[in-house]
Design a protein that fits this description.
about 525 residues; OB fold (Dihydrolipoamide Acetyltransferase, E2P); 6-stranded mixed beta sheet; elongated
Length: about 525
């Protein structure tokens, strides 16, 4: 370099040199601009993701963060090849980190921008739309193709590209914080509710007031001299929980609890109360525009005084009464049981004599099941029950193609769907380990065949994070992931609400026939 140039001229010359990482995939040599390259790692083990683009190998754990791993060979249609010691994943961050598997990394080179040529002459070799330029006689190679990874992501991963574009528009590349801001923005114009049935009427409680949903216990301890709607006390994870009947509180006819009955544990500051419901339906997201106050005349009626608002769904055909939990439990009988000296002493101490672990409220309880080698989870309260797969399913004429058949479940006809087929996975032969998991989807009971049910798992909420958005369908059905780093496990969390397309629910209810549709 000349010694007689001034600093300004030297800076101008320096800006003409760009750094590239070069690598090999198939029989071709490629390069990527150094700026978005976050790091280069060995190819990690991955978790396969249903409903993702075929170029995705799966998801990996990179220091506690979920990293999508993409096969560059598959992007360009090259022959498949197993990763070896030379294979690497080039981690590129264009709004969301992505790992691209290459056969080997060659070098890092500095290239004068005047050496970068137009890529129009390579259409017969690879997909020219993904190549932004050519490097000639660089790094010992006659020709190196410069990949346009922003275009590649937009072409192969539309959902990822949309996320990245939103992050860039916000002036930040922190996808997690961007997603959180989106959630906060949505939360300002909608309510999230847990809905349930009592005496044929649908009610709901704000989800932030619900700690968890559990089944009825085998034993309830009676509380002397308590109000009629106080059922007693149960033990829930080494603490005592007062139980009340919403039927009795609202003056509705009494009914013995059955297998559909559930206890909704409602948070009241430091205390909690279990409210017995006939059945739990779903978690609803309701636009504020669909919510209105209870008319004053109704508000004075028995059973309506503790209902704050009513939301209209399905064009007004479905009315859900929203209970104000804090108003409900200001009633004297509930306050008395919460302040009862015997209960309060036991509630303040666990069974070993120590203070209650407040961290229990920071957990989610999941039912974990397997499809092939991968683990999936659903919230335990979403599972109505789990039954064995019968030797034969009864096929229904003119049933939708996605329905395997039906079974008789205690007098009700239950449509059954193979979850492998629903998720686009290879079919598997029937086995004794398979089970049918029964969900209530938009109030229609439906069974899904899984390879096996593994366990009930408590997961800290901090270990649950949004899953990378790889396709529109995947981002709805498999939107979250439990990243259990210490156990070297990643459990994909499935949202049962999206297991059946909205347009298919009516035909699914028709297959169920009497008892199959729980809409009432």
């Amino acid at each position: 370099m000349r010694d007689d140039i001034n600093p300004t001229e030297r800076d101008e010359l320096d800006t003409e040199v760009r750094q590239f990482v070069t690598f090999v995939a198939g029989d071709e040599v490629f390069a990527v601009d150094m700026a978005p390259v976050q790091e280069i790692i060995r190819v990690p083990d991955v978790v396969r993701v249903p409903l993702a683009p075929p170029t995705l190998d799966g998801l990996a754990n990179l220091r506690g963060k979920v990293l999508p791993i993409i096969s560059l060979r598959r992007v360009f249609g090259f022959a498949e090849r197993a990763a070896d010691d030379a294979s690497r994943a080039v981690v590129i961050d264009l709004g969301q980190p992505l790992g691209f598997v290459v056969d080997r990394v060659a070098s890092v080179v500095g290239v004068d921008v005047r050496q970068i040529e137009d890529a129009s002459g390579i259409a017969a070799t690879v997909r020219s739309d993904l190549v932004s330029g050519l490097l000639k006689d660089v790094g010992g190679h006659a020709t190196i193709m410069v990949l346009d990874f922003a275009h590649l992501i937009a072409a192969e991963f539309a959902q990822v590209a949309a996320t990245a574009a939103a992050a860039r528009a916000a002036g930040a590349f922190d996808v997690d914080s961007g997603a959180q801001e989106d959630d906060e923005e949505r939360s300002t114009d909608e309510l999230q509710l847990v809905s349930f049935d009592v005496a044929g009427q649908e009610y709901a409680v704000a989800i932030e007031d619900v700690q968890e949903i559990v089944q009825m216990p085998d034993e309830i301890v009676q509380v002397p001299q308590s109000a009629p709607h106080v059922l007693g006390i149960m033990t829930l994870r080494q603490r005592l929980l007062p139980l009340v009947s919403l039927r009795r509180m609202f003056g509705l006819p009494a009914r013995a609890a059955d297998e559909q009955s559930r206890i909704v544990v409602v948070s009241l500051g430091a205390a909690a109360v279990g409210v017995v419901m006939d059945s739990v339906n779903e978690v609803l997201r309701v636009a504020l525009s669909a919510v209105e106050p209870v008319p004053p005349l109704l508000a004075r009626q028995s059973g309506m005084a503790d209902i704050a608002r009513i939301c209209r769904l399905d064009g007004g055909k479905r009315l859900v009464s929203i209970i104000d939990a804090h108003s409900l439990f200001r009633q004297d009988a509930i306050r008395d049981i919460l302040e009862n000296r015997h209960v309060q002493q036991d509630t303040d101490m666990n069974m070993s004599g120590g203070p209650i672990d407040a961290g229990k409220d920071d957990e989610e309880q999941l039912v974990v099941f397997r499809l092939g080698q991968e683990e999936f989870g659903v919230p335990i309260d979403s599972v109505q029950e789990i039954v064995r797969v019968p030797e034969m399913l009864t096929h229904v004429p003119r049933a939708p193609s996605f329905v395997e058949g039906v079974i008789n479940l205690r007098g009700s006809v239950l449509p059954v769907i193979d979850l492998r087929r629903r998720l686009g996975l290879p079919e598997a032969a029937r086995s004794d380990r398979q089970r049918i998991m029964v969900f209530l989807i938009d109030r229609v009971c439906t069974g899904f065949i899984v390879d096996s049910v593994a366990e009930v798992l408590k997961v800290e909420r901090r270990a649950i994070e949004p899953a990378p958005q790889l396709s529109q369908e995947q981002s709805r059905l498999l939107a979250r992931m439990a990243n259990l780093e210490q156990q070297k496990r990643m459990v994909q969390l499935l949202d049962p609400r999206y297991l059946v397309a909205e347009g298919d629910l009516a035909s699914l209810a028709a297959v169920g026939g009497p008892g199959g549709d729980q809409r009432g």
